[in-house]
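Hey team,

Filing this mostly as a record. A colleague (T.K.) asked me to run one chain through the structure pipeline before their review meeting, and I want the input and output archived in the tracker in case anyone asks later how it was produced. No errors, nothing strange. Just documentation.

Input sequence:
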Amino acid sequence: MNTADFEFVATMLRQSSGLFLAPDKGYLIESRLAPVAKKHRCNSIDELIGRLRIARHEQLVRDVVEAMTTNESFFFRDVKPFEAFKQKVLPELMSRRATSRSLRIWCAAASTGQEPYSLAMILHEEASTLAGWKVDILATDISTEVLAKASAGIYTQLEVQRGLSIQRLVAHFDKKDMHWQLKPELRGKVLFRPFNLLDNPKPLGLFDVVYCRNVLIYFDQATKLRVLDSIASVMSGDGILVLGGAETVFGVTKSFAAWNDQHGLYRLAPPTFAPAGVQADAAPLAAIGAK
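Output structure:
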């Protein structure tokens, strides 16, 4: 692949999805776009790129972006962010929301659904504590392909073995031939919808918890700042942001500060922080284009 073609694809990816492609990643374009070229009846990657240069057809651009996006995910990934949710985040927010008895959680870049479903399992296991509460989980991703898989809640034997205990597998899944499917009550706890992190998140409403893990590592510094500040704009004053183990807000944005000495967990920095118990109303999920 010549330099001009690489720069063209890299620029298109950065502008459309925020994905930063380093100069030494040209091999990824060739390997991941081969199926896209075949799908669109192009004889080569060069022909595919040539077609993109002539006319950026919406579906073709979407297929290219989805092919270049990394969708690695598994249940209870890294463990600690989920332990912190159960032991620290959930109890504190429940105390602050004792009057409204409602919580909204956003899993951004949710991929094939293991992250939001992991949270749904925790909430299901805490059902007695959450009796009378309304808890919404919105899971978004730029890829409609992975969202379709997530919505179905069907996983291979290998996928359920990554991060799930046998107790949780038996409790929350049904065996479907050679696969496992989440029980309907678990699938019903999560709403999936497409969303590009470069877009304005305001129509999504306000959130008490935002998981945005292992996605900022694919962005350049300017895009990280843009995404983090956008997330800050839709968080309740005392909400919690959860990032991946290799990600941080420090040196990127002043919108957040460390929370409770918990690695990877952040709260809006003063003076944005609202008094205890103060939570702005958020639009119900059913009113924001649920599908």
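Quick notes for T.K.: Confidence is low (pLDDT under 50) at residues 275-291. The radius of gyration is 20 Å.
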